[in-house]
Design a protein that fits this description.
It comes from Roseisalinus antarcticus. This protein is 74% helix and 7% strand. The model has no long low-confidence stretch (mean pLDDT 86).
Length: 120
């Protein structure tokens, strides 16, 4: 199984390297369009262009998408995780109660002997 995982990541790495070499041209990126950045005073720096290779823009876009997706999933699964934690605490509490009852039952005489003593 470990070798399959290594092979998968090697294929992913080869694909990323191939895409990177195929898209080495420079592109300009801006956070805001020029008109919008110029219309809001103090935020003109958001419209300043940054020149980066195209593969860098692609990989950063994929990485940002993955991070947003992971955060979205983490928030979406919050209810299930809290319920699971609550269930674990309840199970632990019940297990402790069972252990206490077992110890309590076996610390004295048997129940049959206790009944015989009470009636006799």
């Amino acid at each position: 199984m470990r070798y399959i995982r290594y092979a998968f990541w090697a294929i992913v790495a080869i694909c990323l390297i191939t895409v990177s070499f195929a898209n080495r041209g420079m592109v300009e990126l801006r956070l805001l369009p020029e008109a919008l950045a110029g219309a809001v005073p103090g935020f003109g720096w958001l419209g300043a262009p940054v020149s980066v290779p195209l593969f860098f823009a692609i990989l950063i876009g994929v990485a940002v998408g993955l991070v947003i997706g992971l955060i979205w999933e983490w928030i979406r699964e919050l209810k299930q995780r809290s319920e699971a934690a609550r269930n674990r605490r309840a199970a632990k509490s019940l297990e402790a109660e069972v252990q206490r009852l077992k110890a309590e039952k076996h610390e004295g005489k048997d129940d049959v002997l206790k009944l015989l003593e009470q009636t006799g």
